[in-house]
Design brief:
Elements lengths: L2 H4 L8 E5 L1 H9 L9 E5 L5 H15 L3 E5 L2 H5 L7 H17 L3 E5 L17 H13 L6 E3 L1 H5 L19 H15 L14 H13 L8 E3 L3 E3 L5 E2 L2 E2 L20 E7 L1 H4 L8 H11 L5 E7 L5 H10 L8 E6 L1 H9 L10 H12 L13 H19 L4 H24 L4 E5 L11 H4 L4 H24 L6 E5 L20 H24 L2 H12 L11
Parallel strand pairs: 1-2, 1-3, 3-4, 4-5, 10-11, 10-12, 12-13, 13-14
Antiparallel strand pairs: 6-7, 8-9
Helix pairs in contact: 3-5, 11-19, 12-16, 13-18, 14-15, 16-18
Length: about 550
């Protein structure tokens, strides 16, 4: 191999190629260009700019990106049935550009490729937004230290219309169009004089503030909208990776009806983000469980998804108590464990408190303290808002002894209290409840490179200590549970212990094949709980009693 071929293709790396279907197609067409340690292909077909903005920070951190190539908005505009506005696109693009700037990532942002508005494939689509979004990027990308790549200029002809040679339908790029876009991209990314952005030296407090800012971007009102009694749920009508929440804020095709239809076997699944992940309703854990139960003979099984992003077990218990027991469930499945442990490490540090409770309290106190009229006059900026919240976080961490042994024990204690409430709920309402300690990468023996890098060593050591306590508690609850007739405790933390294939993409979220494994196991547990509940009905008890009283039928004589 010649010395020239050993030279890195890009002046810095790794570079994150980040976007929607356009980036996904671009990287798939030339895999040799987008493979290896210098490049990371992270285009996901169908994603909106809002979906992209939610995952950008975590992708940058996960892959250690030093560069970012970003194109976003095409799928928002060209997917029929989506509601999209220039203000929404600009807000999401701004958030991504700001995040990349704050993380000291060299960024190239590309114009959205043009289309032919007269093409049948563009009929009814808001294609005028493409030019408007590109105009905003052309004018403002530099405000965030990003370099603008004008793909519109190389792909469009007269009037800004996509040239016929670059598309077969006037909307999607063909091989020739992709080649032109790729050539412009490579010219920009390999241009001389483009250097890596180096982060300035940090104090310890500045480093903590930077980590806080990383996680601050996940405080999303679409997935954690204020909701009575349970702190938050999904925002009705908002979407989770393209799947809309129902009118109650949960990921169901239609909201649950209070009156259960005759013949329906009603299963309610309560959990955190692992319960709503999957990309569409059928791929979520509840969706898979419903399919398995119906295939296994329960043709009228209906499984409802009551998963809530970042929900802890206390919230789940309140959800069941305040709403779900009124729906006449035949069984309730509860998946918990991880959020109770890692939420206090990063967000609200008070043991037993929900994900962002301190932020809600701090903002409410700032704006509605009637003894301090200055709050109405301070014109709080976004940066000042962050400072206000960060300073409160530091105060609370000092107050509760964050990361101390006593703090760790208090977190487990609050989880145990919530679990005991769950057992009592199950007994008092005569509803079978299966409480599951959810799977975790901590218990997987065969780790892939991605799985080994999901978190820092200090955090993993903390989580390992805490999960061991929850595993011991679950084992004790299984043996000594006070209401064993209706309640079941199940430890699935190590269900993937011996699985060699890649499974987790962070601490607790796993891929589709793994989701099917978990769903199959949980469907079996639900079947067992339903059968035990059926055996306890008055009619079944009477039948068993009469069966014991009935004399044995005499056997027929040999000559009969």
């Amino acid at each position: 191999m010649s010395p020239v071929s050993d030279k890195p293709l890009f002046p810095l790396g790794p570079i994150l190629f980040f976007g929607d279907s356009l980036t996904a197609d671009l990287t798939a067409e030339t895999p040799d260009l987008f493979s290896g340690p210098q490049t990371v292909a992270r285009g996901i077909a169908g994603q909106s700019t809002r979906d992209m903005a939610r995952r950008l920070r975590s992708d940058i951190a996960l892959y250690g990106a030093k560069g970012l190539h970003l194109i976003g908005g095409r799928d928002d505009i060209l997917t029929p049935g989506r509601t999209v506005s220039l203000d929404g696109l600009v807000a999401d693009l701004t958030a991504m550009l700001r995040d990349a700037r704050d993380l000291h990532v060299r960024t190239w942002v590309g114009a959205i490729p043009p289309v032919d508005p007269a093409a049948p494939a563009a009929a009814g689509l808001p294609v005028a937004l493409i030019g408007a979004a590109n105009a905003w990027l052309r004018e403002h990308a530099g405000d965030y230290g990003a370099l603008f790549i004008d793909y519109e200029a190389v792909l469009a002809g007269e009037g800004g219309v996509l040239r016929p040679a670059f598309s077969h339908d006037g909307v999607r790029l063909n091989a020739a169009g992709s080649a032109v876009l790729r050539a412009a991209m490579m010219a920009a990314l390999t241009a001389p004089g483009v250097e890596q952005i180096w982060a300035p030296p940090e104090t310890e407090d500045a480093a903590r503030r930077r980590k806080f800012l990383h996680h601050f971007g996940y405080l999303d009102s679409n997935t954690r909208y204020p909701s009575p009694f349970i702190q938050f749920a999904g925002k009705p009508g908002a979407s989770h990776y393209g799947v809309p929440f129902d009118a109650d804020g949960f990921l169901n095709a239609t909201p649950i009806a209070e009156r259960k239809p005759a013949g329906e076997t009603r299963i309610l699944v309560v959990g955190d983000s692992t319960t709503i992940d999957g990309g569409d309703i059928a791929n979520t854990l509840p969706g898979r469980i419903e399919r398995i139960l119906r295939t296994d003979g329960l043709g009228r099984a209906k499984v409802y998804n009551f998963g809530v992003m970042s929900s802890c077990l206390t919230q789940m218990t309140h959800l069941i108590w305040s709403r779900l027991v009124t729906y006449s469930p035949d069984a309730i499945l509860v998946l918990s464990g991880s959020t109770d442990l890692f939420q206090p490490w990063t967000y609200d540090p008070r043991p037993g408190h929900p994900y962002n409770a301190f932020i809600t309290q701090r903002l409410y106190d700032h704006f509605f303290d009637t003894h301090d009229p200055r709050a109405r006059e301070d014109g709080l900026s976004y940066d000042a808002l962050i400072t206000l919240i960060y300073e409160e976080l530091k105060r609370l961490r000092a107050e509760v002894g964050w990361q101390s042994p006593g703090w760790e024990d208090a977190i487990v204690h609050h989880y145990e209290r919530a679990a005991h409430r769950l057992t009592k709920l199950s007994h008092d309402h005569a509803v079978p409840i299966i409480s599951v300690l959810q799977p975790t990468v901590l218990r997987k023996r065969h780790l892939t490179e991605v799985e080994r890098g999901v978190a820092s060593g200090a955090f993993l050591a903390y989580l390992d200590r805490q999960y061991a306590k929850l595993e011991a508690f679950t084992a004790e609850l299984t043996v000594r549970r006070p209401y064993r007739r209706t309640f079941t405790a199940l430890d699935l933390s190590g269900i993937f212990r011996d699985r060699e294939a890649g499974t987790f993409y962070d601490i607790v979220h796993y891929d589709d094949p793994a989701r099917e494994i978990v769903a199959t196991r949980l469907a079996g547990e639900i079947r067992g709980a339903l059968e035990r509940a059926r055996a306890r009905t008055p009619l079944e008890r009477a039948r068993r009693f009469l069966g014991r009283l009935s004399p044995a039928r005499p056997s027929a004589s040999p000559g009969a």
